[in-house]
Amino acid sequence: MAAAGTRSGRYLLGVWILVAVLTPLAGFLGARGMAPAVGVAGLLCLPLARPRLTDTAGLILFGLLVEWALISALWSPAPLPQDLKHFGRFTGLHLFQQLLFSGALIITARNLSPDLARKALTWVGGGLLALIAVLLFESVTDAWLLGTIQGLAGQKSNVAHWALRAVGQGAYVLVMLFWPVLIGFWSDGRRRLAGAFAGGAILALILLHISAPVTALVTSAAVFGLVFWLGRSRAWWRLRARSSSCPG
User: In whole angstroms, what separates CA 67 from the centre of its chain?
Assistant: First the structure.
């Protein structure tokens, strides 16, 4: 049931606004910053999470990815030191917490009414646009902002190359949320905003000179195109089957 105008709907919108506000800062801190932010948001959504049968496939796939990541963290052809074994166990606990909390955040998002969902999209998109602005600024100033923060904290500034690599961790957050926000803007009729978002994100990835997020974005585009094409083909075959079964 849509949560239009209800207390739960406004509560969920508040959670997504929190995610949007934290996105530029958490993205600047990389995965270590974004994971706790998403975890807190998912924890806040957990009491309202009501999984449906249609969620099973997605949750199973998410769980298999977590299991694969855990195996990758624990497995090694060489004997692992004891501290790395403890680290692997901690990583496994962290990943399963993310499965629970991230799943709750995603599942409860459908309870937003169209109006509240549009507002949540605007906030999250705004947070990502702010992150893009930060990444672009850092890429053309050799991570001046990061160096300034390190100086204020009394830390020795990194060499520009390594500072940019640290800033580039925010690109993983950008790629992770790229398609939902882009498709949301496009389907909502905000085509120019979608184009500005896509162009800024791609430019930031290019200027940061990091390959993994670019590879992930290109691969996800291919997968998205394949799934979109298969969906259209299946719909076309169903329509054709129904037309052929109709008399006259």
Answer: 19
Amino acid, res. 91: T
DSSP 77: S
Judged against a pLDDT cut of 50, whether residue 1 lies above it is answered with no
What is the structure's pLDDT at 18? 92
**H-type helices in the chain, by residue range?**
7-28, 31-45, 56-74, 82-109, 114-140, 144-152, 160-167, 170-176, 178-187, 191-208, 211-245
Best CA proximity match to 203, nearest among 124, 135, 120: 135
Q: How many CB atoms lie within 10 A of CB 232?
A: 10
Residue 4 phi, psi dihedral angles, 5° rounding: -65, 125
Q: Each residue of 236-247: pLDDT tens digit?
A: 556 555 555 555
- Hey, how many other C-beta atoms are within 10 angstroms of the C-beta on 219? 10
143-175 pLDDT, tens per residue?
Answer: 777 667 666 666 665 555 566 666 777 788 888
Cα–Cα distance between 186 and 191 in angstroms, integer?
Answer: 5
- What CA–CA distance (Å, rounded) separates 4 from 133? 33
Question: Would you say residue 204 has pLDDT above 80?
Answer: yes
